[in-house]
Amino acid sequence: RWAGGPAAETVSPVLTAWDLKQFAYCPRVLFYALCMPVKRYTPPKVRIGTDGHGRGARLARRRSGRRCGFGRAEKRFEERGASARLGLSGTADMVLDAGAEVAPVEFKMSGRGPAPNVRAQMAAYAVMLEETLGKPARRGFLVEIPHMQIYPIEIEQADVAALESRVAS
Known about the structure:
- Helices cover 40% and strands 27% of the residues.
- The chain has 169 residues and is α/β, with parallel strands linked by helices.
- α1 packs antiparallel against α4 (116-133) and α4 (116-133) packs across α5.
């Protein structure tokens, strides 16, 4: 994916948090999505998950951030973030803003808990939100929609280093 103007010197590669999540899951998924000129197949589980995002957001609007340890944090949905340093962009499903810190929240239809690819996506959102909002993002949350199970994900320096290494290669 490319961002920038028509001049070659202003064009720079931009990866999304989704790209990093897919790469962590299976590099071939990203290769086919970005490099192969084929019509993209959307599996039924992805369509169900997209519909589930709406349900998760509706439920989250009515709840406070106390279950996540954020008290009365402001909730913002579909929050865009970017990192010029790493060439990343993306949209978090929800962001909890407690004033001094922020936390990305992802809604998923899975029932497996925070898989490594979700941790990679969460680290990308944390870096992007820190650069975009100027507030630390040291943790994020995975919300599994079927049962509204919340998993806190601590974003450690090792996660950010792995992200930087993955983007650099």
